[in-house]
Amino acid sequence: MHNSDAGGALAGLRVIDASRVLAGPFCGQMLGDHGADVIKIESPEGDECRGFGPPFVDGSSAYFRAVNRNKRSMVLDLNSEAGRETFWQLLETADVLIENFKASTLRAWGVAEPAAITGRFPRLVHCRITGFGDDGPLGELPGYDAAVQSMAGLLSINGEAGGEPLRLGVPVVDLTTGMNAAIAVLLALQARHRTGRGQMADVCLYDSAVSVAHPFMANYLASGNTPRPSGNGHPNIVPYNVYQTRTCPLFIAVANDRLFAKLCAQLGLAGMAQDERYKSNGQRVVNRVAVDAALAQAFAQVDGEAFGKQLLAQNVPAAPILDMAAVAAAAHTEHRQMVVRRDDYHGPGIPIKLSDTPAAIRRGPPRLGEMSAATPPSER
């Protein structure tokens, strides 16, 4: 990652980010990281996630700052005719619009249906992010990460075996939707190279949540059996779980029979890898309880830190369970530049590294309304 003003892969692209909270802003930040000029449109009160704290830095929450770098903020009151007129003027020179307006809000502005926006601006790529889409049994309902996790089945498969449903701690639906939105924008831009026309990209939280219910949805469709929570265990792979050693817990993820044989050899259980009950992954899944019991007993005798390194040296996936402080301080986090610490910005790094057109953090998150609506369009 280069913290410079060098052009990225999307240099020259003009993006109007009229979205709020998480999925849309995350999409806009991804485009901005790779060189797009992103103008964030905010109401006079600002994006409400500016207040999702503490902690706060320079008046905005860490939550807001994590998904709004590489943008400039313009305040527009879109409930006023003057504000909407400025908004439409911005779209005349924009390549991409990201928004998550309610369909009823668009209708109140005289936009009969979302598709009418690309009708008015034929070259515009219009990325529309909603909770459930604009039609169908749940169409036009608002979407919130935890509620969609629940309705899309993710809570039903998360948590300890026999325990209560548990929300995934990371807002995985919003973040996945933001990534899907960025992919949708790039696909539509590629199509525009060929056709000269923009189009609307319909991206919703519900679709994104169902799409990442892997392998639980696929297992259900193939077997008809409703999946249940299994804690840290994996429904299709054994051993794939947390095991308590003499000193610390280790996460072990053994995805094939060759690695299982290596693990057993390191634990002094070589005979177990040759036992017909455990020799193949399919048999280990059937005999999950016996496998886990034997491994738990063996792991309890070893020093976790030293043994984890010993397993990794044999290419057997073994991971210590680190907290956020340890991750932020980790040497590999620093090496991969996945935590950024600058005078004007502390936040997560950029996960996509391009060799010829590297991403850059050109500016930290914007102050509310730092761009004046009176700024000439050529300078925006």
Topology readout:
Elements: E1 14-17, H1 23-33, E2 37-42, E3 56-57, E4 60-61, H2 62-65, E5 71-75, H3 81-92, E6 96-99, H4 103-108, H5 116-120, E7 125-130, H6 145-151, H7 172-195, E8 200-204, H8 205-211, H9 216-223, E9 240-244, E10 249-253, H10 257-267, H11 270-274, H12 281-286, H13 288-299, H14 304-313, E11 318-320, H15 324-329, H16 331-335, E12 339-341, E13 346-348
Parallel strand pairs: 1-2, 1-6, 2-5, 6-7, 7-8
Antiparallel strand pairs: 3-4, 9-10, 10-11, 12-13
Identify the notable features of this structure and list them briefly.
three-stranded antiparallel beta sheet; alpha/beta; six-stranded parallel beta sheet; 380 residues; 37% helix
Structural summary, described in words:
With 380 residues, the protein is an alpha/beta fold. The radius of gyration is 25 Å and the shape is elongated. Helix 1 (23-33) packs across helix 7 and helix 7 (172-195) packs across helix 8 (205-211). The two termini are 26 Å apart. The strands form four sheets. A six-stranded parallel β-sheet has the order 5-2-1-6-7-8. It contains 16 helices and 13 strands. The model has no long low-confidence stretch (mean pLDDT 94).
